[in-house]
Amino acid sequence: MLSIVVPTYCEADNIPRLAERLNDVLSAEQITYELIISDDNSPDTTNDVVLALSSKLPARLLQPVGRDKDLSLSVIDGIKAAMHDLVVVMDADLSHPPEMVPQMFKALQQNSEAFVVGSRYVPGGSFDRDWSLFRFLNSYVATLITKPLVSCQDPMSGFFGLNRTKIADYDRLNPLGYKIGLELMVRGKFEHIIELPIRFVDREIGESKLDLGQQLKFLRHLRRLYTAKFGTLGEFFSYGLVGASGFIVDLVFYYLLQFLGAPHQIARALSFWPAVSWNWLLNRIATFGDRERRPHGKQWLEFVLASLLGFSINWGVYYVLTTYVSFFDQYRLVALVTGVGVASVFNFVMSSLYVYNEKRK
Ligand SMILES: Nc1nc2c(ncn2[C@@H]2O[C@H](COP(=O)(O)OP(=O)(O)OP(=O)(O)O)[C@@H](O)[C@H]2O)c(=O)[nH]1
Ligand SMILES: [Mg+2]
Question: Does some domain include residue 278?
Fold first, then answer.
């Protein structure tokens, strides 16, 4: 027996098509199911549509009272409200082929310890979206930085199945943004992840939700998951990633300023500032995003001071090692990397205890 949870917002046109296709395949396989439309009080005709459907199919409408519209919470509400323990979650816009649901259900029946994902990126899977290079890179990088958290090729998929008893406490889930599948995968007690290839079909009408706000939310969500999984090491990892991105900002300005005619020493001195500001902001939003905020200006200044101190240590380690230890003089790159390593730890400790020292929310 299966519960299918479909989060919806203004999908009145898609719901009947989805429900009928689901009913066709599930009846053919003789799978008993219920369909839960977890709708965020859509201002369209969703209510009437689901009411009409419920007279002929096992479909029902679930709508929240007293909270803001939120895709992840709708999915959680749906899972909590389900009659059965085996649950498949999918989108309403027919991007996720209903014909795959029986296979996902069987995979769950056979492996109660598994999290099942309908995956675009395993052999046999595909998607037909005409993605821009930016969107592709974005998705690629996003997937890459989830690697230490989960072994899944398509961790952003919204098409997944689980035995809901594997999540100890639904109220302790803490998703930010709409990557609820990732949240469940990381926080649930699943022994493994089974990926079934799907052909992802683009919605016919609709807009992408991939704006900057969502991206930043995603970064903060990832940081939370890293901290949940690896403790402070998670923050350190995020700090390192921010640092690496800051290095790119540094380089871009270094070359840009020279291109605009600045002498290289001046370019070097100036490019530090956008880079350090970038690092400060991203750390404020992402790495330490769960901590209480404090005034920008003061915190920025503290971050700059900590970074300058960190840089002195970085340079000092390099200087001492190459001056007094012949090995390091021979292998200067090792001295450089050691300096960067020591300074990174120092910077991180300063940031964590001092610059962003407020309690986690
Ligand atoms: N309950 C609820 N459902 C939502 C919300 N936003 C989107 N959805 C539903 O979540 C599913 C996925 O949303 P989509 O808009 O298709 O997101 P997407 O697939 O990333 O983007 P598209 O390219 O537009 O298809 C759909 O069934 C939506 O109706 C929301 O705020 N609340
Ligand atoms: Mg969609």
Answer: yes
pTM metric for this prediction: 0.78
CATH code, 37 = 3.90.550.10
Say yes or no: 39 and 157 in one domain.
yes
pLDDT, average across residues 130-159: 84
Please, is 244 exposed, middle or buried when counting C-beta atoms within 10 Å of its C-beta (0-12, 13-18, 19+)? Answer: exposed
Estimate to the nearest angstrom the gap between the alpha carbon of 64 and the chain centroid.
24
Check whether residue 200 and residue 263 sit in a common domain: no
Q: Is the CB of 129 under 6 A from ligand 1?
A: no
pLDDT digits 0-9 by tens, 39-96: 999 999 999 999 999 999 999 999 999 999 999 999 999 999 999 999 999 999 999 9
Q: How far is CA 130 from CA 127, 141, 154, 159, in A?
A: 9, 18, 18, 20
- pLDDT tens for 175-228 read 777 789 999 999 998 999 999 999 988 776 555 555 777 788 888 888 888 888
Of the two residues 154 and 357, the one the predictor is more confident about is 154
Domain hosting residue 332, numbered range: 231-355
Centroid of ligand 2 to alpha carbon of 206 (angstroms): 8
Give the closest ligand to the alpha carbon of residue 95. 2
Q: CA–CA separation, 33 vs 87, rounded Å?
A: 10
Domain shared by 240 and 143, yes or no: no
Q: Give the highest mean pLDDT range of 35-39, 120-124, 165-169, 185-189.
A: 35-39
Tell me if 6 is assigned to some domain: yes
From the CA atom positions of the chain, what is the Rg in Å? 25
Asked whether residue 43 is domain-assigned, the answer is yes
* pLDDT surpassing 90 at residue 112: no
Q: Which ligand is nearest to the CA of 157?
A: 1
331 and 266 within one domain: yes
CA angle 28, 31, 32 (to 5 degrees): 125
Rounded to the nearest angstrom, the distance between the alpha carbon of 339 and the centre of ligand 1 is 47
* Any atom of ligand 1 within 6 Å of the Cβ of 8: yes
Same domain assignment for residues 195 and 237: no
Q: Evaluate: CB of 46 within 6 angstroms of ligand 1.
A: no
Look at ligand 1, atom 9, and give the residue with the nearest C-alpha.
8
Report whether residue 209 contacts ligand 1, using a CB cutoff of 6 Å. yes
The rounded Å distance from CA 88 to ligand 2 centre is 16
* Whether residue 189 is found in the same domain as residue 291: no
